[in-house]
Amino acid sequence: MRRRPEAVAAALAANAAAGLQRQRRTVRAWTDAADGPRVSVDGRTLLNFCSNDYLGLARHPALAQAQQRAAAEFGSGSGAAHLITGHCSEHAALEEELAAFTGRQRALLFSAGYMANLGVIAAFAARGEVVLQDRFNHASLLDGARLSGARLIRYRHAGAADAAAQLSQHSNAALLATDGVFSMDGDVAPLAALAAACRQHDAWLLVDDAHGLGVLGANGGGVLEQARLDADAVPLLMGTLGKAFGSFGAFVAGDSDVVELLLQRARTYIYTTALPAPVAAASRAALRLSREESWRRERLHAAIARFRAGAQALDIELSPSPSAIQPLPLGTAQRAVAVGEKLYQHGFWVSAIRPPTVPEGTARLRITLSATHSDAAIDALLEALHRALRAIPAQREAS
Asked: What's 21-50+294-396's CATH class?
């Protein structure tokens, strides 16, 4: 796009006409009510059904207390990168606890999941090599492959056979990367088959389990625990701390030498300020709570089952998903926005997901469930959703 005001205005107008213009809403307050997480937005109080706070830990008092203690000891900021003076005892303890939690020798903290994926792919793949990825992977994985200089090849969504065929065809395939739980679809990658194919063809396997850790598996070990896969099968595991763990940041876990090489090579680790110590302390508290309070996972999975059963009873066609992410396909961006706005007017906050986040023609509502949602809140959302879909039927979609 040329540097001209009219070009900017035209691009914004085209976005708006296609129903793709994103808008921010400012949360004025966030509380955990008896029926679930409530937010105050634009003078309204809404039940939040689009947060990634799956276990309801983000506002747990133990996290706030841990932050306060660490802030008093270390201050509000780390002041430097990990490899200068930014790495403190809270970071070191969190890395050790994450390694133990994931059953790996070491873990390395990053300031965000996006940075973790960019860093790990560039560290283990380079120009002249191939990186294979699922078509529905998160943008950070796709961007990591592009920025590494390697050739990016995308296989069919959840297509283990297609991935294996691509590995067979490309002897220079250095790495295969996949979401564990796909962030916009809620389904789970075929990890056992992917791990077998990567082992056969001597390629690294990177799993981004941002939406599985803390949620899936009897102990919250995520998709790897659910699939009974160890560090040998999946040598590179990325997880985030800002979803089920209610904090912020990310990590990569693996064998000791693997993590050491990452520490030496990952530019997004070397050249950025370390997470503030209070954030690391809050993450440690959340990790402990996720292990001790297994009822949170149990309640979350009961909520998922109730929501899906209720949707089926009302003929609401959800995408297949065993996770806390429950997508409702609506086709066009305009219809997704209209249904989301109708829910908003009735006191429910649900995000409309549109291209380019998802492919053209697959706009949807991304409904997410939490351990803190009550049965009554889930039933009320379903009834409001049923009314909204009847009020805005598919035949009235904009072309």
From this structure: alpha beta
